[in-house]
Design goal:
This protein is mostly helical. The chain contains 26 helices and 8 strands. A 4-stranded parallel sheet has the order 2-1-3-4, with helices on both faces. Strands 6-5-7-8 form a 4-stranded parallel sheet, with helices on both faces. Helix 1 packs parallel to helix 7 and helix 2 packs across helix 8. Bound molecules: iron/sulfur cluster (SF4) (2 copies). One iron/sulfur cluster binds next to helix 11 and helix 14.
Length: 680
């Protein structure tokens, strides 16, 4: 230590026995952490395999950036601020303690002079205060504000008290040292200096004795905490960066590929805990029960029996409860081939269905797959996919699904559209438009894919007509697939009917490839999403764009002329479709199309990546909504609050849902239009 600057925490030499006690405590605490990971790893490995370590360096850098920036955490201002105080406070305190240890025990002399004063004295004091403030905010959130989704269990209070006591005793130890050594640099430890004032009148013998006793208490507490934290909610300090590393780097909406050609395919989806992947199981451990997903979930907010937080927590409880039997089973059948010797398999192999224990039946079908839970989760957990995997199992293996879905599935099977309107009528809407089919023309810029809504729904047919007119006026050569076009299969897949999705998708892909289609434009974000992200799993790789993207680029290129005052007298609120925004990152283009015409844009409280679902995603367009409040009515209320005079959308489902919601307001109803109609 620099001459004249006394050691920060210790002003007498610890005996060699004391050193050994500290080393033993340190090794013991680290062993507890390792033990935790070994035990937990065995649990996660009960899940099925999944590769989440491709591009390790990219993943590592990404995880480090996410952890350091705390980008996900600050989404909730108060909770985020609290977390920043505690996280960065603890980082600085741990770093300062490590430097003190390195200086004293290893004689590295890495903190000298000013570095010592700034880093160890001042920064550590500020960090200690930050942690204390953070914990007080946490307590206020739990017991004062009682944040809705935030779940408090006794273990959380223990963690708060532990941290608070460690920080407080740290300041007392520092104050006693300053008082006992008349530290000339005391001004650099403002909090310790203030505490020292309370002890100035004590004689030095008493000061040394009290300091020594409290120092050991502080250290013991710190080591016990080190051993304990990993078994508490604070384990997320290590688990969440792990989740950042292992996160899905592909399409946000990706569903697992099921090889329908596989003759050995025995099951589809997830009907047992061990059929989830290890990453699904890891997610349940990384969940810190903050409740953000639940507080923002449209299904939950509108009164459905669904909480994404509870789904993860219930799955975790099932995993822990079932694990002894599952581990025996895995020992009997290490490859998980299902060929375990019946005699060696445990008699009480878990068999309780997941639906009913992890999520209620109504909750399973209430999810709109809007992705808001994914967006707000500070742990980057992947909630909707777990529900979708369970839906696939229920439909494919149990034939258990809402009665309304039966008719939708049958209609898609027989006529290639959810309404069941004759397949031969698909192009009727365009009969009077000069748009050819691919049987009539081959040399095109884009295949125009109106989707089932754009082809069969009378309201959305107007949007299709607007899109065709706009594209053709800009000189874009487009054609239809014609009556060969089938439903893209999005609703079938998200409703769990993987086989139906497979037959629709493979037929579409075969037709598109037969016509050598390279580029597709569609006004439906659900078609866009499935054509762009799901079809490549089946070998259908196309360049797919949304009509707002193409129209915006045509305006930028000067190929499509707009009247910059056409909407100057309008105040328009644009509703972000989940599948366009959150799943495909398209926020700017629809707004650009409106502002290019001079419209004043209003924004709802929930917009862009935090948009509120219209209620139709995940196949919910085709199901009854009898529980709670209708989601489309809630979204329409949010639009009306902006006092705009028009609601704009860029999705046929959103258009239908919001038009329906707006109509329920009678005379106060607002017109609901697709941006293409407004542009035309
Ligand atoms: S995807 Fe949307 S509806 Fe489904 S659980 Fe998440 S937030 Fe709720
Ligand atoms: S899943 Fe994510 S958002 Fe939901 S409670 Fe857990 S950590 Fe919070």
């Amino acid at each position: 230590m620099t001459q004249g600057i006394p050691s920060r925490e210790i002003f007498w030499n610890i005996s060699s026995i004391g050193h050994w006690i500290i080393y033993v405590l340190l090794v013991g605490a680290l062993a507890c952490c390792v033990w935790f990971f070994v035990k937990r790893r065995n649990l996660w490995r009960l899940g099925s395999p999944e590769n989440r370590s491709d591009h390790p360096m990219r993943r590592l850098l990404d995880a480090a950036a996410q952890t350091v920036s705390q980008r996900r955490v600050v989404h909730d201002p108060l909770g985020g601020f609290m977390h920043l105080l505690i996280f960065w406070g603890m980082v600085v305190l741990i770093a300062a303690t490590a430097v003190v240890a390195a200086n004293q025990d290893l004689h590295l002399d890495i903190a000298q002079g000013d570095v010592y004063l700034y880093l160890l004295s001042l920064a550590a004091d500020v960090a200690g205060i930050a942690v204390i403030c953070g914990i007080f905010i946490a307590l206020v959130r739990r017991f004062g504000r009682r944040d809705k989704g935030l779940e408090t269990v006794p273990e959380d209070i223990v963690v708060d008290i532990f941290l608070l006591t460690i920080c407080m005793t740290g300041f007392f130890v520092e104050g006693l040292r300053i008082a006992g050594t008349s530290d000339p640099w005391r001004a650099w430890s403002p909090v310790g200096n203030a505490v020292a004032g309370w002890f100035e009148t004590m004689d030095s013998g008493t000061l040394m004795a009290v300091h020594g006793g409290l120092w050991w208490f502080h250290m013991l507490l710190a080591f016990v905490f080190m051993a304990y934290f990993i078994y508490s909610k604070l384990a997320h300090v290590l688990l969440i960066p792990g989740n950042y590393f292992f996160r899905n780097r592909g399409a946000v909406s990706a569903m697992p590929f099921i090889d329908m050609e596989d003759e050995n395919l025995e099951t589809m989806g997830v009907g047992k805990v061990e059929e989830f992947t290890w990453k699904d199981l890891y997610d349940t451990e990384a969940c810190i029960r903050c409740g953000r997903c639940q507080d923002n979930c449209p299904a939950h907010i509108s009164g459905k029996d669904l909480s994404p937080k509870d789904v993860l927590q219930n799955l975790r409880a099932r995993l822990i409860a079932d694990s002894p039997a599952l581990q025996l089973l895995r020992a009997a059948d290490p490859e998980g081939s299902g060929a375990a010797d019946a005699a060696s398999a445990p008699a009480d192999t878990p068999s309780a269905p997941l639906v009913g224990s992890v999520v209620s039946r109504s909750g399973l079908w209430a999810c709109t797959t809007c992705g808001e839970c994914l967006q707000v989760c500070p742990a980057m957990n992947e909630q909707p996919i777990k529900l979708l995997k369970m839906r696939t199992y229920q439909v494919s293996m149990e034939s258990d699904f809402p009665a309304e879905a039966q008719a939708t599935f049958r209609n898609m099977e027989q006529n290639g559209n959810p309404w069941g309107i004759g397949w031969q009528n698909r192009t009727k809407w365009a009969a009077d438009l000069p748009i050819p089919t691919l049987d009539e023309i081959e040399d095109i810029d884009y295949l125009y894919w109106p989707g089932c809504s754009g082809a069969y729904d009378s309201r959305n047919q107007k949007v299709s007509r607007a899109v065709v007119k706009l594209l053709q006026s800009a000189g874009v050569r487009i054609a239809l697939l014609g009556n060969d076009e089938r439903c893209c299969g999005d609703a079938a897949r998200r409703l769990g009917n993987e086989y139906l999705y497979y037959s629709l998708a493979t037929e579409n892909i075969a037709n598109l490839q037969a016509h050598k289609v390279k580029k597709i434009v569609t006004q439906c974000p659900h078609c866009l999403n499935v054509l762009k992200h799901d079809y490549p799993q089946l070998g259908g790789c196309f360049e797919v764009v949304h009509h707002t993207e193409l129209l915006a680029s045509l305006i930028e290129q000067g190929r499509l002329k707009v009247d910059s005052k056409a909407l100057a007298d309008r105040c328009i609120v644009y509703h972000d479709s989940c599948y366009l925004g959150r799943y495909n990152d398209i926020y700017r283009e629809p707004r650009d199309l409106l502002s290019a015409q001079g419209a004043t844009l209003a924004e709802m409280k929930r917009s862009h990546a935090d948009s509120f679902c219209c209620g139709a995603g995940g196949g919910r367009m085709w199901l009854e909504e009898t529980e709670g409040t209708r989601i489309n009515l809630m979204r329409t209320e949010q639009a009306l609050e902006t006092k705009a005079d028009t609601i704009a959308t860029a999705c046929p489902f959103c258009l239908t849902m919001l038009a329906d919601g707006s109509a329920s307001h009678g005379d106060a109803a607002l017109p609901v239009c697709d941006v293409a109609e407004l542009l035309l």
